[in-house]
Design goal:
The protein is mainly alpha-helical and 124 residues long. It folds into 2 domains: 12-75, Arc Repressor Mutant, subunit A, CATH 1.10.10; 80-119. Helix content is 57%, strand content 6%. The chain contains 5 helices and 2 strands, in the order H-H-H-E-E-H-H. The chain has helices at 12-25, 38-45, 49-61, 80-102, 107-119, and strands at residues 65-68, 72-75. A hairpin with a 3-residue loop joins strand 1 and strand 2 (72-75). The protein is flat, with a radius of gyration of 17 Å. Residues 10-78 form the HTH gntR-type domain.
Length: 124
């Protein structure tokens, strides 16, 4: 379900976090769907369970998932709010690009930044 690149500079827990966010955002993981247990993910990926725990904690803190004692972790039923958050973020990107162009930034500079952000899962 989740994938990691051991050669990437990005920490494994961030890769798992971004992979989950991507799956949730694209509707692959539905609201209230149960996520695989931490130990299963760790075993499947060949990593320490604490790494997966950290990713799940970040997902819960950011509202993408919720956990119940003894039952596991589930996709938040409030995923619609993330669509609104995405729309707001895209409006901000559009404004920032407009400001950069007004300040003399060219297509090459802007696309380099976008490409770098997309390659690094949003982290510059």
């Amino acid at each position: 379900m989740f994938s990691v690149d051991f050669m990437a500079r990005q920490p494994l827990y961030e890769q798992i976090y971004l992979s989950a966010v991507n799956l949730i955002s694209h509707g692959v993981l539905a609201p209230n769907e149960k996520l695989p247990p931490i130990r299963s993910v760790a075993s499947e990926l060949g990593i320490n369970p604490n790494t997966v725990t950290k990713a799940y904690q970040m997902l819960e803190k950011d509202g993408y998932i919720y956990s119940t004692v003894g039952r596991g972790s589930f996709v938040s039923p409030n995923v619609d709010k993330f669509e609104e958050r995405k729309k707001n973020a895209l409006r901000e990107v559009e404004k920032s690009i407009g400001t950069a162009i007004e300040c003399g930034a060219g297509r090459k500079e802007i696309t380099e930044i976008l490409d770098k952000a997309l390659m690094n899962g949003g982290l510059l």
